[in-house]
Design goal:
Layout: H1 3-19, E1 30-36, E2 47-55, E3 58-62, E4 67-72, E5 79-80, E6 85-89, H2 92-127, H3 133-165, E7 168-170, E8 175-180, E9 187-188, E10 193-198, E11 203-210, E12 222-227, E13 230-242, E14 252-259, E15 270-275, E16 281-285, E17 291-293, E18 296-302, E19 308-312, E20 315-318, E21 323-325, E22 334-336, E23 349-353, E24 361-363
Parallel strand pairs: 1-23
Antiparallel strand pairs: 1-22, 2-11, 2-15, 3-10, 4-6, 4-9, 5-8, 6-7, 8-10, 11-14, 12-13, 12-15, 13-14, 16-21, 16-24, 17-18, 18-19, 18-22, 20-21
Length: 364
Amino acid sequence: MKPSVIQAALILSLLVSACSPPPDAPPAPRAVLVRTLGSAADAAQAQVYSGEVRARHESELSFRVGGKVLERKVDAGAQVQAGQLLARLDPQDARLSSSAAAAQVAAAEAEAGLARAEFKRSEALLQRNFISASALDLRRSALDAAEARLRQAQAQAAGTANQQSYTELLADSAGVITEVSVDAGQVVAAGQRVLRLARPGEREVLVHVPESRLAGLVVGAPATVRLWMAPERSLSGRVREVSPSADRATRTYAVRVAIADADDLPLGATATVALADGGPAQLALPLAAVTQREGKATVWLVDAQQKVVPQTVEIAALREDAAILKTALPAGSRVVVAGVHRLIEGESVRPLEAGSAPALDVRR
C-alpha cells in the first residue's frame, strides 16, 4: 500500500474520532432522606400519648333547682368574674312557692298569738281557782305546739326564699367558660350540668392510658409534653393523678399530667405526652420507612460506604403516625425514611439527614 493512502486513512480515522461524542458520565448517586437513630443515653424511653390541655381546677356549674331556662348570659370562651350572672330560670314557680310559704308563716304567727293569749288568761284564772292545774297544762301544751309550727313555717319560708335565689346561676370564681350544655327554653333538672368553668392558673394535660400500660405509672413520674401547635417547644411535667377506675366506654384510665409554669397554654389544645413505663424499650419509625420485601417487613439502612442495605424487622404495632418495631437497631444507624420502594440493594446513595432529633424510643 502506498504511503499516501496510509496517511489518508490515519487522517480520516482521527477526524472521525474527533467528531464522536464523549462517553456518558456515571449517574449521580440518588439522594435519600435518612434519620440517624440516637443512642440509648439520649433517646427518650417513653410511651407517647395524645391528650388535651385542661385547667387544673374546673367546675361543672348547674342549678340547684329544676325549671325552664329563661336566658343564658354567656357563651363558650367567655371570660367571667366571680359572682357574675351566667343563666336564669323562670322564677314564676319559685315566686308562687315563696308567697305560699309567707302565708303559712302568717297563719302560724296568728295561731301562736292566740295560744299565747289563751295561756295568759288561763294563768290568771288558775290564780283565782276558776280552773284546775290540768287545764293550764293543756293551754301550755297548745302554746308550745303553736310556737313549734311557727318555727317550722319560718324555716320553710327561708328555704323557699333560697329556692327563689337558686333560679339565678352565678359564677363561683373568675375563669373562662369552656363548655355550654343548655340553651334558653330548655327544661333542666336540679344538678344537671349547664356550663363548665375553667379557673385560671395551673394547666395540665389529660390523656387516656390502656390497662396494659398502667402498671408502670405512678403519681409523680416525670413526663415530657409537646404541643401540636408548637412542636419545637418541650415542657416538663409530672403525673398528678391516675384514675383508680377505667372508663366504661373506652376501658382506659385517665391520667392527668401537671405542667409547671405553663399558665399561658390555650385550653383545649392538643398535646403529646411521653410517659415512662416499665416495659421493654421499642423503636418507633415513620410509616414511610417500612416496606415489604419478599413478604417481610423491611427497613433500609445506609452503611459506611454510602450504600443501602435491607434489614428485616418485626413489627410490634402500627400507629397512625409510626410503626413500632420489636427488632432493635444499633445506635447511630441511618434509616431511610422516604422513597424506600425505589431502592436497590447495594445502590450508592447520597444521604440527607431528616432532622437532628432522634427517633422516639417507646415502650411496648
